[in-house]
């Protein structure tokens, strides 16, 4: 698929599926270079004899099916997001059929793919970035309908455990994505920093709670800890840094949206604490 095809798929995901459509577009874009090739190609071949790329694709769509069906039904938005993923990966007809087959198999009741999970974890043991990308995409699907159902959370915890990702690390990642979604879905409107909600308005309790989640810190975190978390996230997602790494242009656009959400969250916290200090 051409860069324009992937760009179209990303824009569709972003406009119809909100923050998580854009997030997954960003994740996929980070795996694809400017020539349209998957960056997974250099992955190690494990005891299974299969490459990290092959295992990643099978595990991704199998787990997407499992997560989608874990609350009893697969929603239209979950199907749309999965279709968006297929489009953005640029799969041909055979690849599309295979991806759908994996998704359906993962959605089957009591289907066991632990062996596949272990094989990928072993093959990608020196690629923690791949594990994180996989988990973020699955979290995106789990949250695309809104609140995270208990069944979906259990499935995600199990997958994180199988990947060797500690529960506290998973919980923090989930919290960050939920918080950023609250800002990202309001992009350019209510949550775009203090310039948007005006000098007279105060951040609501929900807005403030989401802001701390978006930065991955507790409300009791010191100003220094908040700033460190903010700088770390901005460093990871800053468009200029990604541009220097040669990622596709459409990924830069999504990264810009994500960095704006992070900036807005930080602005909310700073404004709140400044007002608290003035009252005190």
From TrEMBL:
Positions of the J domain: 210-274
Keyword flag Transmembrane: yes
Gene3D superfamilies: DnaJ domain, TerB-like
CDD domains listed in its UniProt record: DnaJ, terB_like_DjlA
Transmembrane segments: 7-32
Alphabetically ordered keywords of this record: Chaperone, Membrane, Transmembrane, Transmembrane helix
Designated name of the protein: Co-chaperone protein DjlA
Organism: BD1-7 clade bacterium
Gene, per the UniProt record: djlA
């Amino acid at each position: 698929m051409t860069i324009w095809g992937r760009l179209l798929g990303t824009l569709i995901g972003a406009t119809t599926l909100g923050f998580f459509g854009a997030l997954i577009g960003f994740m996929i874009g980070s795996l694809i270079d400017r020539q349209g090739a998957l960056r997974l190609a250099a992955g190690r071949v494990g005891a299974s004899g299969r490459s990290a790329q092959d295992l990643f694709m099978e595990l991704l769509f199998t787990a997407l099916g499992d997560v989608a069906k874990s609350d009893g039904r697969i929603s239209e938005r979950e199907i749309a997001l999965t279709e968006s993923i297929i489009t953005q990966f640029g799969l041909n007809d055979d690849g599309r059929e295979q991806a759908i087959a994996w998704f359906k198999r993962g959605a089957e009741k009591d289907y066991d793919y632990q062996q596949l999970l272990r094989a990928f974890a072993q093959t990608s043991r020196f690629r923690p970035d791949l594990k994180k990308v996989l988990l973020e995409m699955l979290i995106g699907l789990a949250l695309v309908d809104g609140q995270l159902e208990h069944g979906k959370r259990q499935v995600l915890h199990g997958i994180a455990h199988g990947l060797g990702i500690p529960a506290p690390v998973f919980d923090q990642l989930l919290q960050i994505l939920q918080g950023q979604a609250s800002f990202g879905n309001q992009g350019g409107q209510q949550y775009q920093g203090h310039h948007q909600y005006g000098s007279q308005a105060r951040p609501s309790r929900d807005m403030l709670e989401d802001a701390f989640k978006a930065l991955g810190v507790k409300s009791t975190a010191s100003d220094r800890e908040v700033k460190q978390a903010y700088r770390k996230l901005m460093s990871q997602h800053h468009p200029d840094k990604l541009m220097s790494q040669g990622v596709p242009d459409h990924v830069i656009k999504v990264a810009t949206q994500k960095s704006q959400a992070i900036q807005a969250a930080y602005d909310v916290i700073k404004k709140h604490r400044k007002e608290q200090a003035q009252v005190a």
